Amino acid sequence: MKLTVFGATGGVGREIVRQGLAAGHQVTAVVRDPARLEVTGDRLEVFTATAFDDPESLRPAVAGRDAVLSGVGPRGRKDAGLAAPVTRSILRAMDAQGVRRVVVVSAAPLGPVPRDEPLAGKLALGVVRIVFKPVYDDLARMEEELARSGAHWTSVRPPQLVDAPVTGVYRTVVDGNPRAGRRIGRGDVAHAMLATVDDPALVKRAVGVAY
User: What are the CA-CA distances from residue 174 to residues 28, 63, 115, 154 (Å)?
Assistant: First the structure.
């Protein structure tokens, strides 16, 4: 497949690029600074974009692609407000080029709390939602942009991200979250995102992922 990856120098995006190339895909990595992209490969194209809020400038990056994957997201409260406008621009560029499939990384707190979630988990989630409210508000607006669009979207919602190699072993819940799902490695989030690309059952759905 021909894939475009936004946020390709971030923890999740870099893993999407690496795993996509390893799986034999042609990958276009969209970056602001090519020097920060540590991944190389014969099927890799690097597309430099300095203004992610300009849909017109992003059109060449998505033209003719089978799917777009976005690892764009805030790393903390200081980056809140990034995901929604960038995703809006990506969606507009995709629409202009007739590209429909998009998979984005979001966050577990946007999903429902499992009915059998332990009390400690419910309390911890409540605290996280309060402390990082600007981050989750931004991601909620991002998901609203997806829902309003004509794209065939999937939102992958991990809990706490950790630096860990891909294992391919994790739990998923469509339109929900795994019980007591506390963390997951960035490599496995990327693995889950790539796995959803050609699954029609996950179009316009959110997927909770966790160990």
Answer: 28, 29, 15, 10
**Residue position matching structure tokens 């979630």:** 117
Which alpha helices (DSSP H) does 55-152 contain, by range? 55-62, 83-97, 119-131, 133-148
Helix axes 11-22, 186-196, angle to 10 degrees: 60
CB atoms within 10 A of CB 115: 7
Query: For residue range 112-152, what is the model confidence (pLDDT) as tens digits?
Result: 998 889 887 788 777 888 888 989 999 999 999 999 999 99
**Between the CA of residue 18 and those of 10, 21, 63, 64, 118, what are the distances in Å?**
12, 5, 21, 21, 36
**Structural domains of the chain sorted by starting position, each given as residue range(s) with its CATH number in brackets:** 2-210 (3.40.50.720)
Consecutive 10-residue runs of the chain (211 residues): their mean pLDDT?
Answer: 96 97 98 93 93 88 98 72 92 98 97 88 80 91 97 97 95 96 97 98 98 97
Cut 0.85: pTM above it: yes
In whole angstroms, how far apart are CA 160 and each of 121, 134, 157, 167? 13, 16, 10, 16
